[in-house]
Design brief:
Structural class: alpha+beta
Number of domains: 3
Bound molecules: glycyl-adenosine-5'-phosphate
Strand order of the largest sheet: 3-14-15-21-18-17-16
CATH superfamily of the largest domain: Bira Bifunctional Protein, Domain 2
CATH architecture of the largest domain: 2-Layer Sandwich
CATH class of the largest domain: Alpha Beta
Strand content: 25-35%
Number of strands: 28
Number of helices: 14
Radius of gyration: 27 Å
Helix content: 25-40%
Length: 517
């Protein structure tokens, strides 16, 4: 199996920091594990992805199988809801990961992320084969970590020969049931065996309190998903908007999960943003809409510039889905840290009427839809939910866009779909004199009303191109001496580095056409 391309991840992370896409949160205080800030370029790129989703979901949703536009409306519900919400949804009782503590290092891990590998070695001047049960976090560099640790421990015990390690024969920690083996396992960051606790359930919701007193009655939760706010407002939307099944309610917003092991940059974080849509339909149409949305969402990610071969539809088999789900497919992406495998980007779940039924029971409010066109038929709509991470989607755009090409002036550049790029047009006076800055400034003031522009007059043109390439800017316009005579500028294309002379009067139209294409 090829090694995961972690070097690309470290280069991308460094670029994100250097160019202001993503910063570690609270960096000046040493950072806070699982939390990230988005810098000027990252915020703009994230907003553009969010806006593209909103536009294609709410303002201009796809046509349904009958060729008619779907009806989807927007919502912005509270992050903190009545605590009964999370009892009804099952999050209080069931939203837990199995976690393991290490008594030696005080580290906490997700049990399903630890693999245990049996390592064999021979001591010096001794033919006997000894074993150690070493563990590491599954995935990137596990084999390297185990080898390094094994060598260190063998050295400590007086030296010896490490026999070949087969990481593929490692066992998930969760499979180790007997206390004898557990007592032998050396934790991922520990040096002594037997310091890992047995897995314990750990609720992922962040609790907080509302009001003056901090007690069980005032305890509330930060939402772990945006979806439940939609179910709570489903009836309000139905009663106040001119919608009837099939229809959708979409929401974008922050969610919080106290992940045991946040990792892989902004892939799994404790504070993140989701883009979720609940599509309410008649029970008998559920499977049809489910297939519709899985295909639609795959198509949408491709339309955002993600290559088809980097996307994968993973149908979750029976027995592995949430008990209420009649069908679920994950849309997965080939991240550098999962390659050649794929990791989740979005989940599309057929949730049946589970959520509405639960909220109806717990709130005692009738949530049935009365279909007046069909003899007042009453039913709880079934729900299809395409749920994706906005911040995870941003990571996909960054991974997909990241290019490394030694032959370019700046080897690192971001190939982002032009309409999503944080800056659409860089505007440069060739030199900062001879009337060029004045023309460039005028173009900047005019065009920034229509799309995001950046004026840059510092350093050589090559350096300015390089800066824009790293920011993923698709076009740069240079105003030179000729511009004052022919009223035209040189436009350089990020992807081909080709240059074209474009009249200043046509520059807006030129860029807008490319952005729409
Ligand atoms: N309402 C269903 C739901 O929340 P989920 O699969 O738990 O389903 C949906 O989350 C999406 O949210 C995921 O596919 C992922 O993109 C994103 N997501 C979930 N947990 C995340 C985390 N800790 N950090 C970043 N993104 C996360």
């Amino acid at each position: 199996m090829p090694e995961p391309d972690t070097s690309m991840m470290s280069r991308l992370t460094a670029l994100c920091k250097r160019r202001g896409f993503v910063f570690q949160a609270s960096e000046i205080y040493g950072g806070l594990n699982g939390f990230w800030d988005f810098g000027p370029l990252g915020t703009q790129l994230k907003n553009n992805l969010r806006d593209a989703w909103w536009r294609d979901m709410v303002e201009c949703p796809p046509l349904g199988p009958d060729g008619k536009p779907l009806s989807i409306v927007g919502l912005d519900s509270s992050i903190i809801q009545h605590p009964k919400t999370w009892e009804a949804s099952g999050h209080v009782a069931g939203f837990a990961d199995l976690m393991v503590d290490c008594r030696e290092t005080k580290q906490r891990y997700r049990a399903d992320h630890i693999i245990v590998v049996k390592v064999l070695f021979k001591k010096k001047d001794n033919a006997t084969t000894y074993t150690m049960q070493l563990s590491a976090l599954d995935g990137d560099e596990a084999s390297e970590v185990i080898t390094r640790k094994a060598k260190k421990l063998i050295q400590k015990s007086g030296g010896g020969e490490l026999l070949p390690i087969n990481i593929g024969e490692g066992r998930p920690f969760t499979e180790i049931q007997d206390s004898e083996t557990l007592a032998l396992v050396i934790g991922p960051d520990a040096e002594n065996p037997g310091t890992l606790t047995e897995p314990r359930a750990f609720n992922l919701m962040f609790p907080t309190y509302h009001g003056v007193f901090q007690n069980e009655e005032s305890k509330v939760w930060l939402r772990p998903e945006t979806a439940q706010g939609i179910f709570l407002d489903y009836k309000n939307v139905l009663d106040t908007s001119r919608v009837k099944p099939p229809f959708g309610v979409a929401q974008v917003g922050k969610s919080f999960r106290n992940e045991v092991t946040p990792r892989n940059f902004i892939f799994r974080t404790r504070e993140f943003e989701q883009m979720e849509m609940e599509f309410f339909c008649a029970p008998e149409d559920g499977m049809m809409w489910y297939e519709f949305w899985v295909n639609e969402r795959l198509r949408w990610w491709e339309a955002q510039g993600v290559k088809k071969e980097n996307l994968y539809r993973h149908d979750i088999p029976d027995g592995e889905r949430a008990f209420y789900s009649a069908a679920t497919a994950d849309i997965e992406y080939k991240y550098p840290f999962t390659a050649p495998n794929f990791g989740e980007l979005e989940g599309v779940a057929y949730r049946t009427d589970y959520d509405l039924k639960q909220h109806q029971t717990h709130s005692k409010v009738n949530l049935e839809y009365i279909d007046q066109e069909n003899g007042n038929r009453r039913y709880l709509p079934h729900v299809i939910e395409p749920a994706s991470g906005l911040t995870r989607g941003l990571l996909v755009l960054l991974c997909e866009g990241y290019q490394y090409d030694e032959s370019r002036a700046s080897p690192e550049w971001l190939k982002i779909k032009p309409s999503l790029a944080p800056i659409k047009l860089g505007i440069f006076p060739l030199v900062n004199k001879d009337g060029m800055p004045e023309v460039a400034e005028k173009i900047y003031l005019d065009l920034r009303k229509h799309f995001t522009c950046q004026y840059d007059a510092k350093q050589s043109i090559g350096k300015r191109y390089a800066r824009m390439d790293e920011a993923g800017t698709p076009f740069c316009a240079t105003i030179d001496g000729e511009s004052l005579k022919d009223n035209a500028v040189t436009v350089r294309d990020r992807d081909t580095a080709q240059q074209e002379r474009v009249s200043i009067d046509r520059l807006r139209e030129y860029v807008e056409k490319k952005l729409a294409g």
